[in-house]
Amino acid sequence: MERRTFLKSTGATVLGGTLGAGSVIGALDPSNSLARGTTPQPPTSLRGGIKGRGKPLETESADLSPYTGPWGDAQLRHLLRRCMFGVPESQFTSAQALGSMDAVVTQLLACQDLTKVPLPAPFATWLNTIPISSPNLLAVENIEIANWWFDQMMQETLSLRQKMTLLWTNNFVTGSQTVNIAQYVYTYLMTCMKYALGNFKDFAGAISIDPAMLVYLNGDQSYVTSKTNNVNENFARELMELFTLGIAFPGTDIPNYTQDDIENSARALTGWSPTTTAPFIGQFNSARHDTGQKTFLGQTGNWALTDIINIIFQQPTASPAYPPGAPSGFPQGYTAAYWACQKMYKEFVYYNPSVTDPNGTVRDAMARLMLNPPSPYNPFDIAPVMQALLTSAHFYDAAVIGAQIKSPVQYLGSLVREFWLTYPAFDSSAPPDSGKKDGNNNEIYNDTNPTLTVMTSGILSNLGQQLLNPPNVAGWPGGENWLSAGSFQTREANSYIALSGGYVNSKKNWDLAFSADGYALQIQNSTSISDTALSQALENLSLAFQTTPTSVLGPIESTILDTEIQGTYKDPNYQYNTLGVQNFAEVLTDLPEFQLF
User: Fold this and answer.
1) Is the pLDDT of residue 411 over 80?
2) Which of 214, 242, 481, 570 has its CA at 20 to 30 Å from residue 346's CA atom?
3) Which of these, 426, 537, 415, lies nearest to 121 by C-alpha position?
4) Which residue(s) pair with 55 in the sheet?
5) Three-class HEC string of 279-294
6) What is the dihedral of CA 295, 297, 303, 308, to 10 degrees?
7) CB neighbour list of residue 286: distance below 8 Å, 6 or more residues apart
């Protein structure tokens, strides 16, 4: 399907309610200039369908049936874009060499086996000690951890680990500014990496006593002694509402739990607190635990943490039936499995499942597979579900390809990795504490990588996605919330600044550099192929749709991109010149379609 037709008649329908005048959708108006700095105008129409295709983004597949269609560059690029943060041409060709869809997906999922693909080694020895008396240092250390993680994303090879890690940090949410202990934040991040493709039930148990989570949702303040009853309900509530079950049974308004369930599970979760010396873990103190009988989700006993997790992951149960009146025929554990699978669906297929999976049949198939996976997997294992999803016809449906809106991290990752931006290597041994003091006897802290900081604490934060610090316990809402008239123009501005050398500044120690030749040389035979061929290859690198001179909105972008890459002063020894490639890159990132993947 022609890319602008797709955007105008499908994606625009979804985006239009949020973006409005002067937004990314406004750029679809053929009367608008694509020149940098021009304010887009509202489109003539945000509605309308594609003749013969029914409602916008209607998919033709409604289960997990395997994909049996053609396996070409378009399908491979779609898979890689959804699984990583931008896809440099070198990684595309590496994946292409694997030969088949199954081989590529197997490689992406290989990180599930921690014995073969271990977690990254701890990046700094200062993580072993909490600087209790220095809150300013803790703040700098939190930045260091975000920088390290973003660098891990940018250096990722053919792997799903970092994409899954970001997904789960937006499910089991904590906030670095609330926790404000970098050592706990780092431990939490490593827990999310460890279970990224592991077992969802085990993940929920581990995160319940993670030091950062204990601080963030006040689990460390929840205790009962002979003299004091200080039960805090915050974590118990969010464990069910936002982390594992959701408020209502899938597809119904039937509540999954009651206030009594919150209160009783909160009692069962008392007695946990984080250690204050390494290793940083949750520790249990039986003297601070409520040992009384508790009735939780229809079951009564002297419940503790493990029991609460087990009962949650039994819902709905056959006896006693819970929730009351829930539809029959659903296996034990279905509700939690559906919750996890819906999270994965929204991340990898489409952010609004009611549009592409209106009857929930794909999510239902995912949940049932999670509960009854093939050998050697166990119930609630994440990997077999992701393997089935990434090899399904639904995932490669024409309505799905290119329909997701890039989050700020996805946008910046695409810019850095696909346009071959370079920055100083992250030094895992450099401590942020310089060991020196200023003239007022205040400690001096080093920003060990100002370039990464301008990306994580600058660009990403300004666009609304500060790593490890979502806005609240519900996480980032994502989808159409990522783009507005202002944020789209901010993205355009950041792209232009990066591509024109604005983030190379010796006084600020910034060195986010763009090389037009390095960008173009990703493409095989780039110095000898025609302008049009190079333009098309670079478009394929970053755009999920094809530009065509016969677009229904007019021959806009393909003509401009081809013209830009030729440059004003064409070098007779090459098919392009550096200035032309840079202008091409600036125009390409101005396109609204660059915000889709």
Assistant:
1) yes
2) 214
3) 426
4) none
5) CCCEEECHHHCCCCCE
6) -160
7) 271
Per-residue b or e along 97-127, where b marks 16 or more CB atoms closer than 10 Å to that residue's CB? eeeebeebbebbbbbbeeeeeeebeebbebb
Give yes or no for a cis peptide into 379 (omega within 30° of 0): no
Number of helices followed by number of strands (H, E) in the chain: 26, 10
pLDDT band per the 50, 70, 90 thresholds, residue 321? low
Q: How far apart are CA 6 and CA 331, in angstroms?
A: 39
Fill in the DSSP letter of residue 11: I
Burial profile 499-518: b = 16 or more Cβ within 10 angstroms, e = fewer: beeebbeeeeebbbbbebee
Please report, as a single letter, which amino acid is at residue 345.
Y
Give the Cα-Cα-Cα angle 296, 298, 301 (nearest 5 degrees): 55
Q: What residues contact residue 260 under an 8 Å CB cut-off, 6+ apart?
A: 295
Cα 212 to Cα 302: distance, rounded to the nearest angstrom: 26
User: Any idea what DSSP says for residue 592?
Assistant: G
CA distance 153 to 71: 26
In degrees, to the nearest 5, what angle opens at C-alpha 584 toward C-alphas 583 and 590? 90
* Cα–Cα distance, 323 to 95 (Å, whole number): 46
List beta partners, residue 295: 300
Handedness of CA 17, 22, 25, 31 (dihedral sign): positive
In order of 69, 153, 267, 343, 415, the CA distances from 235 in angstroms are: 45, 29, 11, 20, 37
Strand partners, 505: 510
Handedness of CA 322, 327, 330, 333 (dihedral sign): negative
Burial label, 348 (beta-carbon count in 10 A; 0-12, 13-18, 19+)? buried
List, for residues 21-44, the tens digit of each pLDDT value.
233 333 323 233 233 333 222 222
Contact 249, 327 (CB under 8 A): yes
587: which 2 tokens?
């125009």
Contact 295, 308 (CB under 8 A): no
Going by the DSSP 8-state scheme, the letter that residue 352 receives in this structure is -
DSSP 380: T
Q: What is the DSSP letter of 118?
A: P
Residue 16 confidence (pLDDT): 31
Q: What's residue 567's pLDDT? A: 54
CA dist 472 → 180, 475, 482 (Å):
15, 6, 16
Six-digit token string for 248: 């209502």
Q: Please list, in sequence order, all residues whose beta carbon lies within 8 angstroms of the beta carbon of residue 258, skipping any fewer than 6 positions away.
A: none
Rounded Cα gap, residues 587 and 97, in angstroms: 31
Q: What is the pTM of this model?
A: 0.89
CB atoms within 10 A of CB 242: 18
Name residue 188's amino acid.
Y
Q: Which residues contact 26 (CB under 8 A, 6 or more apart)?
A: 19, 32, 40, 41, 42, 43, 485
Query: For residues 282 and 339, what is the distance between their CA atoms, to the nearest angstrom?
Result: 25
Enter the tokens of residue 585: 């890159």
- pLDDT of 88 over the 80 cut: yes
